[in-house]
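Hi R.,

Here's the chain you asked about this morning:
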Amino acid sequence: MEAPRIAIPEQYNAAADFVDRHVAEGRGDKPALICGDRRFTYRQVQEMANRVGNALLALGVEMEQRVLILCLDGPEWVASFWGAMKIGAVPVPVNTMMRGADYAYFLNDSRAAVLVVSDALWPEVERIRGELKFVRHIVVAGKPTHAGKPAGDLIAFEEWTAKASPDLAAAPTSKDDAAFWLYSSGSTGFPKGAVHLHHDIVYTTDLYARPTLGITERDVTFSAAKLFFAYGLGNNLTFPFRVGATAVLYPGRPLPDAMFETIHTYRPTIFFGVPTLYAAMLQIPDAEKKWDLSCLRLCVSAGEALPAELLKRWKDRFGTDILDGIGSTEVLHIFISNRQGDIKPGCSGKIVPGYEARLVDEAGVDVPEGEVGNLWIKGDSTAACYWNKHERTKQTMLGDWIVTGDKYTRDAAGYFYYCGRSDDMLKVGGIWVSPFEVESTLIGHAAVLEAAVVGVEDTDKLVKPKAYVVLKAGHSPSPALEADLKHFVKDKIAPYKYPRWIEFVPELPKTATGKIQRFKLRA
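And the predicted structure, written out as tokens:
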């Protein structure tokens, strides 16, 4: 398969292309978004985005300034993303499952001038408001309260946009201007702002979504992965908006029953999940009898490797293929994938035409066929740099190539097989987890002296965190203490990061200099 030829003009604004074009070409009355019992046409999305853009201009937001989006998936998220981008500002969507300290980091690191936040997430921001150095305005979608009373110094999203004009000309941005950032964790656990350009989303849709998924304006997409993820952003916004399709947005947690119910009710044709979710959905007895999934023509999996057994069980029960693939925040979406009619269970698939791959040793020399190597990727959707992370940019982005941090093998036919991470980072449910962060949290418990966290496969062969814990004198291992430690971690950091298993040990294996040897624990 040859890669399509992609021509993008020098002056290019992605918001105008992905939203305004559909209205200009006669798709203005076509449904763009379905959010529960609310539906929004492309014309309505255009109007909402224009109002946000004009409202941001009224606040003094200028080109290249950041607008941080901390919103649940919904029309406010979409309007804020496209509206900021249309005026040449830079939307920065962030993970809605984090804690106040994380948001303080995102806001101060990005130097965002405006924060748009859902009312349900406001309490976490309120706790750290005094630590914010650069935010000038906070816009809240919903009705937040302060100590039981309305917070009068906040801007109400609905009133803010209602006063703004629904007409807005796109800023004269270049295809190589910064369009948006996405934060990605690395081996240190500190998030890095990957700076993506206006042209990046064109490449992900035209190289992957159209040829591999066969997406057209007749499709309806539904993604369990949220819009703040690179994976979810493509799945449920840029892919459907590129071709004029319809996206089903779900603001709640992607629990198995809710996913089945949403598919049954809103009839998407493409469903995007992660292996952990597919495994959980397969645990529900008689799901195929309770819910009608006949609308699905295709399912997609990414975020972590999809075990062959899950693929087989899903196909047997629901009759739909799952296309497994690998992507990254830095490259924006999937660059190695299985294809319809060419699915190899337990394999990530072949390189997506338009991207290139190398497997190299530690010296950067290509490894022979069949040997494990570090995966490097080349493609035009790759981020320009990490914001304020010069050394990490140089280490990761080597000219045209980006170091993914993944270990792979490739066979003679060009199929890629995942072998693991090059560092100690874990992916849990498709989301990066830093062992150091979990260890640091555990050590904050009164009973814990030391802790080390590694990845362990569960019964579905999906990786979850396991903690090895050394207790302080005077404390003894017990099921009650194990439960208390899990609850302690859930309460302090994002709940999905908690250790699924805790093993109490007398000591941890270490080097002569005191570094924990996690590889011994994994073994």
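The mean pLDDT is 93.

Let me know if you need anything else.
M.
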